[in-house]
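Hi! If you just cloned this repository, the fastest way to understand the data is to look at a raw example. We've pasted two of them here, unedited. The first protein comes first, obviously.
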Amino acid sequence: MLSWGRRYLLVSPDHFRVEYAINPFMDLAAQPDPARTRAQFEAIVAAIEAAGGSVEVLEQRADSPDMVYAMNLGFVVEGRAVLSHMRYPERRAEVLTSEPWFAEHGFAPVAIGRDGVGAHFEAGDAFAWRGDLVVGYGPRTEKLALKHLADELDVRVHGVEITHPGMYHLDLSFCPLDDERAMVCPAGMSPESAQRLLDLVPEPLVLTEDEAMTFCANSIVIGTTVVMPACPDRVRAQLEAWGFEIVIVEVDEYLKGGGAIRCLTNPLDVRLGRDLVQGRAEVRL
């Protein structure tokens, strides 16, 4: 099983709304219902805690309607928070609240990009897996950011080129399940990247495009429990055959902003040495 994924940061949905359109799912005419939004948030918290995980909650900025997608605040690893530098300026104010929170909770903020400096990086594109970082690039994260990540953390980075407009973060087409298994949707990536990622996974659960567009890969794993927004029948059969328990939490209100379970949760327990092997900084593309 994964050694990380038992402690999460979530953002309270106090000001969640669709105020602009920066992905194919956002429609200003389809606004989330505040009561259902709150209930779905509480259901995610309950599912995490029932599976043995813990949750910390950050208040949402009134000027940052997408801040509920906490995964994109930064990539957190043992004493450091590599802050996201969002592709779209509409989301950049989020760091004004997340940066001091990370600092106050023992995660020294690290910026690999600021306006006009460095590169765009969004943490929904990054996973610690099998000792390395697997990072998507293209729609949101720039390729240059992969070198910054490798150098800052002194780790090996496997770059995955994202090409599907509806899978603009890697966490929509890739979901590690344990040290050997992961859900992978090749349709979300360039053919070369898809093959290289499949080569990294000893036992892949290969998703079709239709399966991935249910957001089933946008899930989190706590031990042997997979908390999911949806689970197609074929995917469920394979996960259960591997010994995973599936917990479905409805998040249709959050899908209006283009994110599901993984987007809404940021793991705080990734450790250097255990989950990321240092001393081999390089980027593999």
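Ok, and the second one:
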Amino acid sequence: MNIKSLLLGSAAALAAVSGAHAADAIVAAEPEPMEYVRVCDAFGTGYFYIPGTETCLKIGGYVRTQINYDEVPGPAADWDARTRGYLTFAAKNDTEYGTLSGYINLQADDNADTFLDGAWINIAGFDVGYFYNWWDDMGLSGETDVSAGNLSNAIRYTYDGGSFKAGIAAEEVTGNNTNDDVGVSGYVAGSIGGVTADLVASYDFDAEAFAVKGRLVAAIGPGALGVLAVYADDPNFFWSVSEWSVAAEYKIQATDKFFITPAAQYFGDFAFVDGNDAWKVGVTAGYQITEGLRTLATVNYLDVDNVADGEWTGFLRLQRDF
């Protein structure tokens, strides 16, 4: 064998060995696939999927600054500026029992710590947790009426038939006497055409007193007329302002962005003192400055029997919603 043959044979052997181990060469690892936030349109606008789950989350809230006016006697200042931040979280996903929802509301004021303004679970018509009762839902749209409403631990069931609703609730009542106890409420609501009516009746076992409230809202002309009435046999968790009260307002939608709402309310046996009546009148106006930014202002006057002077109150608010 000559030198030329030896070199050619060695080159062929080296090529064969190199080809056999080509698969063992260093290869760059493929990057892990990124999971981008996906829009969830199953429950309305604003929801997105929590990465790695089938649960949809929506975050909202507002930032509010307002100047309050309260004509109180004494050395305290009549004017007071306040700022608030508010966050809402809603989580939803489909189950064999229907939509499972969870809600958390957090409120932070400039003069107080952040606190829980509601946290509850909803499924198959049931609400369980810490939330406002139907009394709070049944106010008028303006800022004049006093219509009550409480936040408490409760369980309730609501049947929603679209134009007809009915429900029953049991809630923890506090602050009346020395013992915590239970209150129960029944609720019915219906709508036909441009008219909506609802009624709630509640009994406070701690105070051994009941209260009932009804409301009617009807679209009339360029706005909506709202009326409500309240009665309670004694002060209780649900209503402790007066023995009875009636209120009315007319919300005038002057333009797409501007509304004005004059309103009035009368209180019989104010503070549950026989013959001590009171009345309140006021006006609320709001303007949508641009998308997500609005302003609201109200001026109200309250006159109570056996009190020398009436009281003026009001505020001017700027709010950014998101």
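That's it. A detail worth noticing about the second one: Residues 10-18 have pLDDT under 50 and may be disordered.
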